[in-house]
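so im writing up the methods section and need the Phosphodiesterase delta-like protein record in one place, dumping it here so i stop losing it
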Amino acid sequence: MKPAPFRSFLLISHKQMALTASRSTEPTGTSNVRADGILNGFKLNWMNLRDAESGKILWQSTEDMADPTREHEAHVPKSILKCRTVSREINFTSVEKIDKFRLEQRVFLKGNIIEEWFFEFGFVIPQSTNTWQNLIEAAPEAQMLPASLLSGNVVIETSFFDDTLLVSTSTVRLFYD
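--- predicted struct ---
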């Protein structure tokens, strides 16, 4: 079964965006220990981006881009901006059980937020390896920004959660080659 597509708009006014501050309902000490346990046992094994219509892989990486200790770089072909729908596959391993695994992604252009995306995976079995696919639909062509403006100026901030517990936040700077 194909996942429901997520529409990506590259031009969204700040008034349209609902920014959320997620906080754990657990006591601070408990939440930090739990978050550290999940993070220490979590690994992003690989990720790819495909043209969802043709199935052709346009970009792939085996770098653990969930590592929060540094800003990562992804060099993707600028032809990806011509795709109407992009399929993103993420393969990850978790030592710990995650009750409600989800991601919040914020897309920044030159430091200003232009998009916000929310994805839910759900329950993650401890000691498991999982593959997660999302479909992302492009904005209408008239609203697309050119690769020359985007390249090196787009940072995707991904926050990993177990329900309301923030586990980690990582960043990836995109380059369109």
